C-alpha cells in the first residue's frame, strides 16, 4: 500500500520533472531550502509568548499551517532524493530516545533532557 | 485508518506525557527545537559539493538519516500541538505551487521560480 | 584605521589560506555553515523560559558565548568573501527601520512591528 | 574608544527603548529572530551553484547585503542583552581553532576539518 508521504514524494518528483528542476534539487540545495522555510516558520513564533504560541489567532495559525506545509514539502523531497524513509528514520530515533531518556530519571526536567532529542 | 504520521504523533504524545515534558512542548519551543535540528542537518551538507551531496558515503548518509529522523519528530510534534495536519497542509501548498508555477513558463529556470515554494 | 571586524576578517583570510581551505569558502557554503551555527545557538535557548533566557547560569552563558563567537566568525567571513561591509549594511538597515517604524505608532506593539526588522 | 559595534548596540538599545520593545527583546526571542533572518539569507543562496554564489548579480548582492545587515543587527542586539562581547568571543574561538586545526595536518581537507569551527 502506498502511504500518504510516498504519494507526496511522487507528486514532488513529477512537479520537478515537468519543470526540468531536477537539476536544482541536489540534497545540498534542498537542505538549504528546508532551512529557509524553517526560518520563516520560526519567525511566526518569535514575538509570541509561550502562552500565545499555544493559542494563535486564526490568521497566525493559517500562516503557520502554510509554513508547516512548505517545510513538509522540502523535507519529503530531500529524503526522497537521498533515498531515506522519513518515518523509519523517525521511528529509529524515537526508539533510541525511549531507551536514552528513562521516564523516571528525566521526569519534569528539560535541563538534562532535551525532549525527544539528543540534539 | 490511522496513518503512519498519526502513529508517530501518538507515540510522541505518550513520550512527553510519561516524562511530564508537555510543559516544555509549547509551539514556540518546538519551533526552536526544529530549527536547531535543521541546523544540524544543514551542517552535514555544508562542505560537500553539489555532486558529493548526491552520493554521500555510508557514514555521512547514516548521519543525514539520523538528522532527518530528528527533524521529522519535531515537525510532527509541532504540528500535533498546533492541531495542523501536515499532509493536508503540504498538499494545499503543492496545489498552490502547481497553479503558480506554470510548467511551460518556468521550465529549467530556478532564478524566477524557487522550486516547490513561494519562499 | 583598521576596525576590529576588519582585523577578524584578515585573521580568517589567513586561517583559510594557510590550510588551503579557500576552495571550500564559497558564499553558498559559508551561508550554510552560518545557518548550522545559528542552529546550535538557538538550541541553547529552546527549553528556557523567557525569564530564564535573560539570566542564564554560568555554564549556559559560556556555551552561548562560544556559539555567538562561531556565528560571528562565519558572518564576518561570509561578508568578507562577498565584499560586504557588515557595519555599513547594518546601519543602512537600521536607518530604514527608524523611518519605517514610527516610534509613536508602534509603541509597545510587537504584533504589527517585528522589532528592528522588516523580516 | 567606542567601537563601531558598540555604537550599533547603543543605537539598537535606543531603538527598542523609544518603542517600548525591550519587553520583547528577551535573548530567547532575539535568538529566534536571528534564526529567521539567517533563513532569509540562506534562501538567497539556495539555488545558486557554488560559482554563481561567488559572483552574484547586482540585485542578488543587494538583497544579500540587506540580509547580512539584518543578521548583524539581531546578532549585536542578542549579544548586548546577554552582556557578551562579540569580538572577544570570536577571537577566543579563533584562537581555539588555530590550536585545534594544525595547518599541516588539515591542509586541503574539509572532510575532517570544518573550516573555522568545531561545529
Description:
The structure is a homotetramer of 119-residue chains. With 119 residues, the first copy, chain A, is mainly α. The first copy, chain A, has a domain at 4-84: MazG-like (Helix Hairpins). Chain A is built from six helices and no strands. Chain A has helices at residues 4-19, 27-45, 50-54, 58-82, 86-100, 103-106. In chain A, helix 1 packs across helix 4 (58-82) and helix 2 runs antiparallel to helix 4. The longest helix of chain A is centred in the middle third of the chain and has 25 residues, at 58-82. The radius of gyration of chain A is 18 Å and the shape is globular. The model of chain A is unreliable at 112-119 (pLDDT under 50). Chains A and B meet through helix 1, helix 2, helix 3, helix 4 and helix 5 of A and helix 1, helix 2, helix 3, helix 4 and helix 5 of B.
What global shape of chain A is seen?
globular
Q: Biggest β-sheet of chain A, characterized? A: none
Question: How many helices of chain A does DSSP assign?
Answer: 6
Biggest interchain interface, per-side counts: A-B, 81 and 81 residues
Q: What is the terminal separation of chain A in angstroms? A: 33 Å
**What's the CATH architecture of the domain at 4-84 in chain A?**
Orthogonal Bundle
Amino acid at each position: 500500500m502506498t502511504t500518504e508521504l510516498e504519494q507526496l514524494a511522487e507528486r514532488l518528483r513529477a512537479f520537478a520533472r515537468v519543470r526540468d528542476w531536477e537539476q536544482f534539487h541536489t540534497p545540498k540545495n534542498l537542505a538549504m531550502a528546508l532551512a529557509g522555510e524553517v526560518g520563516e516558520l520560526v519567525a511566526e513564533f518569535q514575538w509570541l509568548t509561550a502562552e500565545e504560541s499555544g493559542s494563535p489567532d486564526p490568521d497566525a495559525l493559517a500562516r503557520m499551517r502554510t509554513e508547516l506545509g512548505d517545510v513538509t514539502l522540502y523535507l519529503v523531497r530531500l529524503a526522497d532524493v537521498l533515498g531515506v524513509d522519513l518515518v523509519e528514520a523517525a521511528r529509529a530515533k524515537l526508539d533510541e530516545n525511549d531507551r536514552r531518556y528513562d521516564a523516571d530519571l528525566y521526569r519534569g526536567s528539560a535541563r538534562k533532557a532535551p525532549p525527544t532529542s539528543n540534539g
